[in-house]
Write a structure and sequence with these properties.
14 helices; Hypothetical protein af1432; Rossmann fold; alpha/beta; 339 residues
Amino acid sequence: MAVNGKSKGTILVADDNESIREPLVELLRLQGYSVIAVADGEQAFAEMCSKPVDLALLDVMMPGRTGLSVCRAVKSRPETRFVPVVLITGHTKGEDRIQGIEAGADDFLNKPVKKEELLARVRSLVRLKRFTDELENAETVLCSLARSIEAKDPYTEGHCDRLSRYTVSLGVKLGLSQEQLVALRRGGIVHDIGKVAVPECVLLKPGPLDAAERKIMQEHPLAGVRICAPLKSFRTVLPIIRSHHEKQDGTGYPDHLRGDEIPLTARILQIVDIFDSLTTDRPYRKALSQEKALQIMWEETRRGWWDAKIVGALQGLLQESPRAFCAPAGISNGSAYTR
C-alpha cells in the first residue's frame, strides 16, 4: 500500500498483451505504486517524454516500436536517460539480453514474470532512481549558486556557461575520456563557487587588491572544494576547483603546484578561462582579438605560467573553427583572469 497515502513511485508498463499487462498493473497498484499502462512502444515513449516516470517495464516484442527501440530512445535523451528500464522477454536465449544491454537496459525479466522477482527489481530500481534524483537536485543547487555568484558582477555574464562549453571542446581535441569531459563541463560552471565566501567589497572591488584582500581572494578555491566535496559525483571536479589558479612555475595558488603536478583538467580550464577573459569586454578595455589574446598567452607561457601543449591545442582548435570560442556581442567578463 502507499505510504501515508502517497505513491511509492510511478511505473510505466508497456505490453500489447492485455492478459499480461493488466495483472502487472494490478499487482503494482496493490503495492502502492502509481501505474501508467500502455499497449505499444509509441505510447510508452510519448508518456515517458511527457510525464515523470520512476521506472519503465517494457515488453521487448510489441507491434510498431519495440521495447528495445523505446529503451534506446529513452537512454539517448538527457531528460530521461536516468529512468531505469526493465525489459520483459519471452525468449530464453541470450539475444534479447545482448541487444538490451547495448540499448542501455538496466535489468531483464523473463515471461512468465514471477511476482517476488518483479517486486524485488522494482523496489531496488525505484530506490536507485530516488538516489539519482537527489544527486541531480544537489548538482542543480550548486550550479544555481555558482550562477548567482556570477550574476553579482555585471561584467561576468555568461562566463561560466562559456567555460563549460569551451573546455569540453578543448578536452575533446586533447582526447580526454568521457569522465574527464563531464568533469570539465561541470567545472566550467562551478570552478569559482568558493567566491561565495569572499566579501562583496573584495569580490567587486574595481581596482587592484591589497595584500590582505588578495589573501582573502586566494582562499576561494579551498572554499569551493569544501562546498562541493560532500557530493560524490563531483569527485572529479574537485581538482579543477582547487587548482585552476595554479601556474606551471609554482607561483599560482593555493598549493603552488608546478608543471604536471597541476591536474590536466585544471590546466585546460585555466587556459580557456584566460582566453575568454582576454577576448571579452572589461570595464577598462574592449575585448581583444583572438590573435592578440593568443599572442599574450604565448608570451606568458614562455614566462613559465601556462602549459604550452594546451595553449597549442587551443590555437589549433581556433584555426579549425575560428568562431567556436566567440562570445555573443556585448557580453563582458570581469576579473576571472586577474584574480
